[in-house]
Amino acid sequence: MAPLVFVVGGTGAQGIPVIRGLVKDGAYRVRALTRDLNSARAKQLLALGNVELQEGSFASETDLRAGLGGAQAAFVNIDGFNSGEKTEMFWAMRSYELALEAGLGFFVYDNYSKLISATETIRKMRANMDPLNPMASTLDPAIAQIYAQASAMRDALRETVPAPGAEARAKEEALARRRRTRKLASAALDTPARLRSLVADGKVLEAQRQWEMPRRLLVVWRDAGVGGVDVQACIDEGDAAVGRAKSPATDSGSSKDDSS
């Protein structure tokens, strides 16, 4: 008798082509879990041949145990978009644990956004199988077919769907840039007070040196219309702090000392 593959999510967009690939030459049988035995997609699967339907839910341990019973492999596909991420991850892990308990040789998990490679999972499960069991070797083409189907879908999705977490990373990077800008602005606006302290200690040249780069930055902000009148006020305060001996970076030109 052909080996049996238990499929969760068999009536979904990814499950149907996987099942079609498994049963097309009669080499494998499929038990597909579905909530509605009378749905159009369920009937479509039955028409393929070598397919039996099991009514139930992926979120039922009883239904999962029944589906895994007598199977040699499992392909689990849970729609996390509709069920929610926490529900998806819980039942994905639970179905894996139940598959281990049932002694399955292969377990492949896939979802709508990415393919999760099951190499380590398969290795652990193969270790639990009798090495003389011919089922172990005859299932290899089935698993290859599953990977080929799922990988093709994954690649197609990658072309249209951002990588998982891409939006969150972009937001974090934007927030980090805003924080750095605020920190830089705060340091620039605090410069005049520091300059006055240096001049008071007689460190005029050091004050001029420390004013050069902040002043350049402030001028760029002012010319770009960033910061409003506060930026120009800060420039004026810094210039006043270092007196007439301004930095060469000044945009207002040098002035002669009018003292005699």
Automatic annotation (TrEMBL):
Region feature Disordered, mapped onto this chain: 239-260
NmrA-like domain: residues covered: 4-110
Naturally occurring in which organism (per UniProt): Verticillium longisporum
Keyword annotations: NADP
Family annotation (InterPro entries): NAD(P)-bd_dom_sf, NmrA-like, NmrA-like_oxidored
Name of the protein in its database record: NmrA-like domain-containing protein
Gene Ontology cellular component list: nucleus
Record Pfam families: NmrA
Family: Belongs to the NmrA-type oxidoreductase family.
